[in-house]
Design goal:
This protein is mostly helical. The protein has 17 helices and two strands. A two-stranded antiparallel ribbon has the order 1-2. The protein has helices at 14-36, 42-49, 53-81, 83-102, 107-121, 123-135, 141-158, 161-170, 172-193, 226-234, 237-269, 273-301, 305-324, 329-342, 346-355, 362-390, 405-425; strands at residues 396-397, 400-401. The protein has a single domain, classed as Growth Hormone, Chain: A. The radius of gyration is 21 Å and the shape is globular. Strand 1 (396-397) and strand 2 form a beta hairpin.
């Protein structure tokens, strides 16, 4: 890692900061694209690999299995090696995994490709947050975090209607193979242009070096052993509570928009694939807008808990209405948009976590908290698929299983339960008052 920029007094220009940060965010866009891409390919994947709902849920969730496992190592690597090396290495491995998934001859190879992609793109979000802590002033950290989510959701939107159109014209294998080539080019760009700290470009760093970085006499303290650092992070109650809360709020979004929303809209509401993808994209777009706005509003408010709690309650009410009240299609789209916006409260959670412990532990803490959203996808995507297969009546159409409305409702009840549990945890998190712990 780069030493503090002693003697440098000029902060980096915002244009350069956004460019450096932007390459990391572009990799997160790719990560999110890969995360939700199976949603518009469910029929092709089920037919090609001759699988049902539970197996499809697991195929998609292989991404999440490896992503979750990599989160704590990612935080440690970002702290020790710097985001540039971690991002470039991740993009290179993501290219390989994408190509393997695209041309997999069977389910096993496809699952291994998805797992490789998940492990490699797991570095994107935490490393981009690490860049933000060095290249932006502290008051812009919540905005940069929200904009990272926005970039990710742009990738999710690209994996909606645009991806569906490309799949229909060129086939899913060719399209996913092209994504692998994009990742390889991004790997080169990150290595050439990204720098861990403004000091490497002759500017003053925005990174806050708290006193816990130094021994007596002002000398840098050596890194803690990896396990000791992890246990120290987990000793802060806020960190593991915020991680668990993300499982519900984010997991519901990933399970719905990332896999099961499109087939539900097609089978229950009779939408064509493009219209169904457009509806789930509405949820993602609202989520992308909610993240930076809610993060910025909580910064202005000077408190994290009230807005997080209020938005969480709105999200829970939204899922309740969509799943159990059977609203007309136009109203359901409105409710999904409101629910997606309110679920952007997870960005408040990342800023809240950063403020809850010393800056030297930020990378590891971000990795721990970022496990939550992906654990949500890991648990809820196959969980919904398992519930669907339990209620399946045996009907098939072109090799794809057809589920009735009651089975879909019972399966989606898992989403509401997860969000309700997350909401119940919020009061137990200590308020940071938007101030960095020392």
């Amino acid at each position: 890692m780069t030493a503090p920029s002693v003697g440098l007094t000029t902060p980096p220009p915002l244009r350069l900061a956004w460019m450096i940060w932007g390459l990391g965010a572009l990799f997160y866009l790719f990560a999110f694209y890969q995360r939700v891409a199976p949603a518009v390919m469910t029929d092709a994947l089920m037919a090609d690999f001759a699988i049902g709902g539970a197996a499809l849920g697991n195929l998609s969730a292989f991404y999440f299995y490896s992503y979750v496992v990599m989160q704590i190592p990612t935080g440690v690597m970002a702290d020790r090696w710097g985001p540039r090396r971690v991002l470039a290495g991740g993009a290179g491995i993501a290219a390989l995994g994408s190509l393997l998934f695209a041309f997999a001859p069977d389910f096993g190879w496809a699952g291994f490709g998805r797992m490789l992609v998940g492990a490699s793109v797991a570095v994107a979000f935490v490393s981009t947050l690490k860049l933000a802590s060095h290249w932006f002033p502290p008051q812009k950290y919540a905005l940069a975090s929200g904009m990272a989510l926005f970039m990710g959701v742009v990738g999710g939107v690209m994996a909606g209607v645009p991806l569906r159109m490309l799949v229909e014209n060129f086939g899913w294998r060719m399209v996913m193979g092209s994504a692998g080539i994009f990742a390889a080019l991004l790997c080169v760009a990150i290595w050439l242009f990204v720098r861990d700290d403004p000091a490497e470009r002759g500017y003053q760093s925005h990174h806050q070096h708290d006193a816990s970085h130094l021994r007596d006499g002002g000398q840098p303290r050596r890194h803690l052993p990896i396990l000791a650092g992890i246990f120290q992070v987990l000793s802060y109650r806020n960190i593991w509570l915020l991680m668990l809360m993300q499982i519900g709020f984010c997991g519901a979004i990933l399970a719905f928009a990332g896999l099961w929303g499109v087939p539900w809209l097609r089978q229950v509401h009779g939408l064509d694939p493009k219209a169904a993808a457009a509806v789930t994209s509405t949820l993602l777009v609202a989520w992308a807008l909610g993240g930076p706005l809610l993060g910025s509003w909580s910064q202005r408010l000077g408190r994290r808990k009230p807005l997080y709690l209020m938005a969480g309650a709105v999200a829970a009410a939204g899922w309740l209405a969509v799943i159990f009240l059977a609203p007309p299609l136009w109203l359901m789209v409105v409710l999904l948009a409101i629910t997606g916006f309110a679920s952007g409260n997870i960005i408040i959670g990342f800023a809240w976590a950063k403020e809850s412990l010393p800056m030297r532990l930020m990378g590891t803490a971000s990795g721990v908290v970022n496990m939550g959203p992906l654990m949500g996808g890991m648990l809820l995507q196959p969980g919904v698929g398992w519930m669907l297969d339990r209620g399946w009546g045996g009907e098939l159409a072109a090799g794809v299983r057809i589920y009735d409305a009651a089975t879909w409702q019972a399966s989606f009840a898992l989403l509401f339960v997860a969000v309700a549990i997350a909401l119940a945890m919020v009061p137990f998190v200590r308020e940071s008052h938007c101030q960095q712990a020392v």
